[in-house]
Amino acid sequence: MDVLDIERADGARRKVTLRRFPRDNRSSQPEQVTHEYHVLQLVEKAGLSAPRPLLLDAEAELFGVPAIALTYLPGAPVYLPRDVGAWADQLARALLAIHAITSDRFDLSILNVQLPDGVRQELETRRPYAQRHGALARSVHAALVEDIDYIGWQSATLVHDDFWPGNTVWHRGKLTGVVDWTHAEVGDPRTDVSQCRIDLAIILDLPAAETFREAYQSNAAAPVSDIWYFDLLRGLRALLSYEFWLPGYHDAGLAHVTKRRARTRIEAFLRAALEERETARRAMPRRRVKRLQ
Question: Are 6 and 16 in contact (CB under 8 A)?
Fold first, then answer.
């Protein structure tokens, strides 16, 4: 990201954010950049707190590489807050605003749909990696496959798909915007909740992840059930991919997130979700538990 300080002919000045997509980036294809621009237009129409799209240069005619010019949001991410509860509450409210965007109110047809069939496809793709990654990965993958037809799937909403503190902007103690909409899709909103939870477990601790869940639930209009399933889903993704995430954490100044710490926190997160799954199974009607076995 670059911040441009533009002076107009009348002397007025304006800051603009320029997002350039390097050629070696898998998201730098013109159609991908154009898609993200259209997603940003949808976000603007929905009135969400996010940068507004100003200019699309998908063919690299102006900046040498594909680029999008956006309105500038002053501020920066907050990773290590003094008041975790208040911070988590603002994160939860911002996420709930995203999840209020549904297809009955907005045209979401440009977005990929990631509901049960999409999750099945993801699980099938990850099967060989989980099998090679150790006993915990195998147990988590088996639980996800076994239970996919028995959890309650929520109505589809707009999903950011990479919602974590690093994709939020804070200014003077307030969350002022959500950025990086590259992977936005239509899906179950609990995927976003669990994605943020696994990141919080890694960069802070498990209690912080739980505080965020409580904040989301307390601000939601309806109960958020079966979150353990999505914790397992996103936790497995983290377990298989966390080594690729480490450079991003370190670039954000989170040098304390070492390879050992990340793996230890992810494994603890997954074990907690498996324990919650067992509690949920004991509370299921007898016929449903029998089918799960």
Answer: yes
